[in-house]
Structure formats: C-alpha cells, structure tokens
Amino acid sequence: MPTLILMAIIAVSALLVGITIGWFLRFIIALGQKGSMELEIKEMMLEARTEVERINQEASEQAHETIKLAQEEAKTLREKLSKSEEHLINRENLLDKRQFDLDEDREKLEKEERNLKNSLLESQKLKDQLVERLSQVSSLSITDAQKELVSALEKNYEEDLIVRLRKLELAGKEKLEARARDIIVSTIQRIGTTVSADLFSTNVHLEEDAIKGKIIGKEGRNIKTFERLTGVELLVDDTPSMISISSFDPVRRAIAKIALEALVKDGRIQPAKIEKEVEKAEKEVKKIIKEKGEEAAYECGVFGLDTKVLHILGRLYFRTSYGQNVLEHSKEMAHIAGMIAEEVGADVRVAKAGALVHDIGKALDHEVPGTHVEIGKRILQKFNTNPEIIKAMQSHHDEYPHENVEAVIVTVADSISGGRPGARRENIDNFIKRLGELENIANSFEGVEKSYALSAGREIRIFVSPEKISDIDAYSLARKIAHRIEEELKYPGEIKITVIRESKVIEFAR
Questions:
Q1: Average pLDDT over residues 319-325
Q2: Contact present, 298 and 314 (Cβ < 8 Å)
Q3: Least reliable range by pLDDT among 17-21, 172-176, 389-393, 426-430
C-alpha cells in the first residue's frame, strides 16, 4: 500500500515537472515567434511607406501633366474667344454702318416721295385749271368734248379705220393659219421617219426549184398537210425559185412563212415535221404579237390599256395597208397626235391612246363583220377602255362626229401619217408625178434656167436668167406661174413660188 502511494506521488511529481518544463518551452517558443512577426510587420510597414511615396510621386507627376494640358487648352480657348469677340465687334460695327446707310436712304426716299406727291398735286391742279378754262372757252362739258372729238375722228378717218380693221383681220387670219402650218410641219419634221412597207412578205424564196417537189410531197400529202394546219394556200408553180402564200389572215400568213422557211432550211419535209414546225411557228408568232403590242404602248407612252387590247394591237405588226405597216403607222400617228395635242393644249394622253388604237379593228376585220372602226370600237368597249379614247379613235374616217378635240387631232394625225410622201406605195408615184408637173410648168416659161420642187411639193424655187428677166419681170413671172399651177394642178394647201434672180459682175485689176 505504501508503495502504491509512493508511486502515485512520484507520478504526480513527474507530471508536474513535465507540465512545468512544457510550459517553459512553449513560453520560449512564443517569444521567438513574437520577434519574428514584429520583424515581418516592420518590413511590411517599410514596403508600404515606399509604395505610398511612389504612388504619391506618380500622382504628383500626373496631376502636374494634367494641369499643364488644362492650361494649354484654356489658353487656346481664350485665343479662340478673343478672335470670336473681335469678329463679333467688327460685324456689329459693319451692321451699325449698314443701318446708318439704310436710314439715310430711307430719309432720301421719303423726301423724294414727298416731292413727287407735291408735284402730282400741282400737276392735277394745273390740269383741272386747264380743263376748266377750256370748258369756259368752248362752253362744252368734258363728256361733250370727248364725244365731239371721237365723232370728228370717226368722220375724218373712217376709211382708214375700215382699211386698218380689215388688215388686222387678214393679218390675224394669216397668223393663225401660219401657226397651224408651223405646228403640222414641225410635227412632220420631228416624226418624219421612214415607214417600212410590208414587214413580212408573203413570198418565200428558194435556193433551187427541186425543193418544190419535197414541199408538194408524194401525191401532194405534204402541201395538203401544210395548208390544213396553217389555213393558207400555197402557190408553188407560178414563179421560179419562189413560193407564194395566199390568205386573208396576215397572222396565218406569218405563221406559214416562218414554218415554211424552217422546213426549207431543214430539208426534211414530212407531215410529222410539218406539224412540229407549224406548232413552233404559232408559239413564235404569239410571242411576237405580245411583245410588239406591249412595245408599241411603251414606246408611245400609252398606259392603262387592257392586256388583251395590247395583244390585239400587236397583231397589226403583220397587217399592211397600201404597203404601209399598220402598227408602225399607228405608232407614228401616236407621236404626231401627242405633239399636236401638246401644242394646242389638248389631252396628250387621250390623243396618243386614240391614235395608237385607231386601226385596232383591222387586226380582226377578216374575221368579224363590219368596218374596222366599228370593230375597233366594240373591242375597246368590251375591255372597258376610257370613253374619251374611244371618242378620239372612232371619228378618223368621219363615220362618227368629232365629239372632242382629241378626235380632230387623231384625224389630222392619220392624214399626216398616211398622206405624207413616201408613206404609202400608192401615193409615191402620184407624189413624184406632181413634183415633175410643178417643175415642168415652171420650166415652160421663157427666161427660166432651172426649177426645183421642195418641201414635199409645197414650195418651188425658180432660177431665172438676169439678162432676160428683170426685177419687175420676176414679180410678174411668179404671179403667172402661180395662176398656171392653180389652173392645171390639184393639190392640198398652198404652194410657195420663189423666183430667184441673181447677177454677178466680175472684173480684174491688173
């Protein structure tokens, strides 16, 4: 038992000694760590001071640079403000000077206006005084004096007044006629393009006559098939190296011509091939009709017509009248009508449209009974065309009265386009003949050296021999030629006769 107590005491003593030693060691270690931390803190504080000094120095330098830039900008701004201020001062001085000048001018004008009013008042007073004195002397009132003056003038100059009025009337009429001629002549000159005659011939030329046998075929089956599919008649044996296509329908003739030319070029002619080429030709002609109708409307500046009207219009591309292509004639008319309408102040749009569709009935006149005017009118009414356009087109052959100004313009344009020299085959021979007759009449007079018919037969210039014809004789000659032309020729309008007498005197100084 005592041993156990002794062992417990020893153990407790050892524990206490161990605790004391451990605490002492821990205290020593804590003192060492404390010194190390203080050293680190001092180093960190030193680094922080260094960093603060560096940042302060950089901030100071940056602030100095910013202040310098701000001072430079302020200096520049002060200079600009100084210049602006100087400019404003100069401008203000200039405005003050102008205002001063304006005030002086206004004062001068007011002074002149007062002087003028005073002068007018004085003039009126003098006038009243003179009128009053004249009334007293003549014992007549102003109204009576005026009536007597007018009456005396009428009596003394009655004949002169009548002659003068007559001259004014004739001069006005001549001016109006000259203006009308100028409009028409100007229109013809501006649109006087050549109209090609018959764009699609009804004849197909062959390189050799042997091809005619292939076209006829065995027992005539090829030609029969071709005529059945196209609705035309082929004339094979009339002319060497040529086949004529006969039909009243110009579109069928065009289809037949295109198909026949394709067959001749290919060389393989049989019913199946004929059917194929005719089908291709029909598609091609439909395409041409569509394009030509739309192109015509676009070229003439006519818009708003129904698409079907344009397609019917395009059929006129294959239609001719006296050798003149009808579509080209219609386009030419549209341009002429537009120019005339613009000159006289009419509706240009209605005039152009009426002229363009005036012959649209000719596209179907071989299929539909009635005149081409009636057919065209029905076509336009069916597709709800503007009534003013219908009125403008329906009177160009005087079948209907002219219900608007545009109808008269379309009629005039039709006469210009169809009647001008060279437009139609039928008129060119008569035109050349008339020119020859004019020149022959002039050349038949004694003293005439040469004569030339100009301006489509509206003028003839005559050159005479100065030895045989004097200046006075030239007037007489012009009058005689005019009488002769009036008696022997028939012509529209008037013909200008110009007699030219020219003499030259040449001498040499040696």
A1: 72
A2: no
A3: 426-430
Token pair 């004569």: residue: 451
Q: How many helices (H) and strands (E) does the chain have?
A: 15, 8
Integer Cα distance of 120 and 130 in angstroms: 15
Tokens of 91: 């401008």
CA dist 197 and 254 (Å) reads 15
Q: Is the pTM of this model over 0.70?
A: no
Amino acid identity of residue 36, one-letter, is S
Structure confidence by residue, pLDDT tens digits, 81-114: 888 888 888 888 888 888 888 888 888 888 888 8
3-class DSSP state for residue 232? Answer: coil
Q: Which residues pair with 451 in a beta bridge?
A: 462
Provide the 10 A C-beta neighbour count for residue 435.
17
Q: What order of strands is seen across the sheet that includes strand 242-246?
A: 203-205, 242-246, 233-235
Q: Which CA distances in Å does 148 have to 145, 236, 385?
A: 5, 95, 65
- Split at pLDDT 50, 70, 90, the class of 390 is confident
**Whether the Cβ atoms of residue 277 and residue 285 lie closer than 8 Å to each other:** no
Rounded Cα–Cα distance for residues 6 and 114 (Å): 153
> Rounded to the nearest 5°, which phi and psi values hold at 420?
-70, 150
Q: Would you state the structure tokens that stand for residue 4, as one six-digit string?
A: 């156990």
How many Å apart are CA 294 and CA 309, to the nearest integer? 10
Q: 336 with 417: CB under 8 angstroms?
A: yes
**Helix (H, G, I), strand (E, B), or coil: what is residue 450?**
strand
How are beta strands 459-464 and 496-501 bridged, if at all?
parallel
Classify the C-alpha dihedral 377-382-386-387 as positive or negative: positive
Tokens 């395009």 — which residue? Answer: 314
